[in-house]
Amino acid sequence: MRFYLQKVLFYVVALWFAVTLNFLIPRLMPGNPVDVLISKMGAAGQPVTPATRKALEIQLGTGGGGNWFGQYGQYLNDLIHGNLGVSLVNYPATVTHVIGQALPWTIALIGLSTVIAFLLGVGLGMFAGWRRGSWLDNLIPATTVLQAVPYFWLALILVLFLTRWHQWFPYAGGYDVASTMPGVSLRFVGSAIYYGFLPACTIVISSIGGWMLGMRNMMVATLSEDYVVAAEAKGLRPRRVRLTYAARNAVLPSLSGFAISLGFVVAGSIVTEQVFSYPGVGQLLWTSVSNNDYALMQGIFLVISLSVLAANLIVDLLYALIDPRTRARA
């Protein structure tokens, strides 16, 4: 019980630290979202008064009399009440509404792609480590080369071959806006899968090599352990030795990396979403940074921080269940 309480307390402190950084980082950037919005209002011929500026400061979270301590207190109070403010780019839409529209797209695309890449990479790496010198083991260097290729370059190559030269897939968007309406229907789901296939392929191809290499090396190291040698000497079936004794212990480091990757699913892949004009959180984050949208940036960073911390906490707790030695060392 002490181990679990220590873990929870650590992540509570980490959450407070992340929330504080989430407040500070956007305000350390040059520019002011209120000035940007007032400039747009002036260009549109709308009247701007001191009362207008004061109202915008309160809406966009830059109020508090110019005092960061006052703004920080107001930010924490709004955070407790679930108020993330108003988005500058999508004014007057709230940050919660804007993120809520983009979040399902990113979770569906990046989440499923990350899980698929992890399962394929760990599974293939397990067999490559079990049968060293096989054709699968010799294929791993080629997959690691793909991991070093930048996302945007691989995405552009797929766009060139599969959307321009052959026109097998669409090159932009999340679904067919001309003939499909968002909703729970086979037509919409099929359209979303069709449009998301290339971005998903980009992520899987770029990341599967790392999972394969890590699992393969851990399998090779684990197979030389005494408990694996003893299991083989007892005459246990190779399948049981491979899965129960070798793979179960070899996969532990990969689980930690998977937790971090799964937590960053919410952040999306900014470059990939930009190339394919995919309506996810990554593209939303790029837009908010480009327009100094404090409230939207803080909302996205907060969701990312919460997802990363939650994923790591869950895996830390599961790690302790899988390997009780971690609890003994705490």
TrEMBL record:
<dbReference type="Pfam" id="PF00528">
    <property type="entry name" value="BPD_transp_1"/>
</dbReference>
<feature type="transmembrane region" description="Helical">
    <location>
        <begin position="7"/>
        <end position="25"/>
    </location>
</feature>
<keyword id="KW-0813">Transport</keyword>
<feature type="domain" description="ABC transmembrane type-1">
    <location>
        <begin position="103"/>
        <end position="319"/>
    </location>
</feature>
<feature type="transmembrane region" description="Helical">
    <location>
        <begin position="102"/>
        <end position="127"/>
    </location>
</feature>
<feature type="transmembrane region" description="Helical">
    <location>
        <begin position="296"/>
        <end position="322"/>
    </location>
</feature>
<protein>
    <submittedName>
        <fullName>ABC transporter permease</fullName>
    </submittedName>
</protein>
<keyword id="KW-0812">Transmembrane</keyword>
<feature type="transmembrane region" description="Helical">
    <location>
        <begin position="139"/>
        <end position="162"/>
    </location>
</feature>
<keyword id="KW-1133">Transmembrane helix</keyword>
<feature type="transmembrane region" description="Helical">
    <location>
        <begin position="192"/>
        <end position="213"/>
    </location>
</feature>
<dbReference type="InterPro" id="IPR000515">
    <property type="entry name" value="MetI-like"/>
</dbReference>
<keyword id="KW-0472">Membrane</keyword>
<feature type="transmembrane region" description="Helical">
    <location>
        <begin position="250"/>
        <end position="276"/>
    </location>
</feature>
<comment type="similarity">
    <text>Belongs to the binding-protein-dependent transport system permease family.</text>
</comment>
<dbReference type="InterPro" id="IPR035906">
    <property type="entry name" value="MetI-like_sf"/>
</dbReference>
